[in-house]
User: Which sequence fits this backbone?
């Protein structure tokens, strides 16, 4: 640009340079902005979820020092129970044995047992053994006395008397025992009653009764036998009296459960393992009698519950 004197002003080239630089800078800025908008512009194409390889999930492993150990359930210290292994000694010092009758394991609620100082003399639950052979028994819980008939021979015995009557023979020596609702007799009772051989198994886990005697059902059981007068009130109200009353139940129509001897329950033995010491101990608990459902009484088998002859 010329001045009045015809010379060019010195500031014009400098101004043009600055303006050119500003224009270039604006172009660069506009280009950068348009590039960012094209990248950020949303696409109409549906985007699929990232795969496991695109965005792997990171599982956090619990560290040994984490609180998971503190919240873990504590180890149970409850005693471990298992079936009793024969022979075993209970809390009262009796050695329990399983019962085999003519080579067959008898399913009885009570075991046979011996005492440590009398290892050769076993006691047997007579009611359950005779029931296994199909013979009913009468039990008087008030007198702790038992009576029944086997092949015409009447057997009577009491827990406080060492005399056991089998037919016309009186066996003396060891008195029967009444323990935990069960009537037990010494082993020699079956030697005379059934002409049986009694012994132990080789490992003494069980006792055996071997008899060739066949049971005559018509001449065995409680038919014709009667319960004592003392036991009748405990059975309930008499429906019949005098000559009309059933001789077996005294007219009540009820009978004392021979499986539990009227107690309504029986003892069960289990081996309990101490989780700390690892030692086993025998513990007993009371189980409801399955025959009378805990009532201790059943329907009189002679009169069928009617109470009359």
Assistant:
């Amino acid at each position: 640009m010329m001045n009045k004197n015809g010379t060019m002003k010195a500031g014009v080239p400098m101004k043009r340079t600055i303006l050119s630089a500003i224009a270039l800078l604006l172009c660069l800025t506009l280009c950068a902005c348009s590039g960012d908008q094209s990248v950020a512009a949303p696409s109409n194409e549906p985007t699929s979820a990232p795969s496991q390889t695109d965005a792997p999930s990171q599982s956090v492993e619990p560290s040994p020092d984490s609180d998971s150990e503190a919240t873990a359930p504590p180890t149970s210290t409850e005693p471990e129970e298992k079936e009793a292994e024969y022979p075993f000694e209970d809390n009262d010092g009796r050695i329990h044995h399983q019962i085999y009758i003519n080579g067959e394991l008898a399913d009885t609620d009570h075991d046979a047992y011996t005492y440590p100082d009398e290892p050769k003399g076993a006691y047997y639950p007579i009611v359950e053994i005779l029931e296994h052979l199909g013979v009913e028994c009468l039990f008087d819980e008030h007198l702790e006395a038992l009576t029944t008939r086997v092949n015409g021979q009447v057997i009577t015995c009491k827990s406080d008397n060492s005399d056991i009557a089998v037919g016309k023979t009186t066996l003396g020596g060891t008195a029967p025992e009444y323990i935990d609702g069960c009537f037990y007799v010494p082993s020699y009772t079956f030697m005379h009653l059934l002409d049986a051989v009694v012994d132990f198994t080789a490992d003494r886990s069980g006792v055996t009764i071997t008899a060739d005697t066949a049971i005559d059902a018509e001449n065995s059981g409680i038919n014709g036998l009667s319960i004592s007068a003392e036991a009748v009130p405990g059975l309930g109200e008499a429906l019949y009296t005098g000559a009309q009353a059933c001789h077996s139940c005294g007219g009540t129509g009820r009978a004392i459960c021979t499986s539990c001897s009227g107690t309504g329950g029986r003892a069960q033995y289990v081996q309990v393992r101490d989780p700390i010491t690892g030692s086993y101990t025998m513990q007993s608990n009371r189980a409801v009698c399955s025959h009378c459902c805990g009532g201790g009484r059943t329907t009189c088998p002679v009169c069928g519950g009617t109470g009359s002859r």
The longest strand covers residues 265-273. The radius of gyration is 48 Å. The helical segments are 11-40, 68-71, 126-132, 188-193.
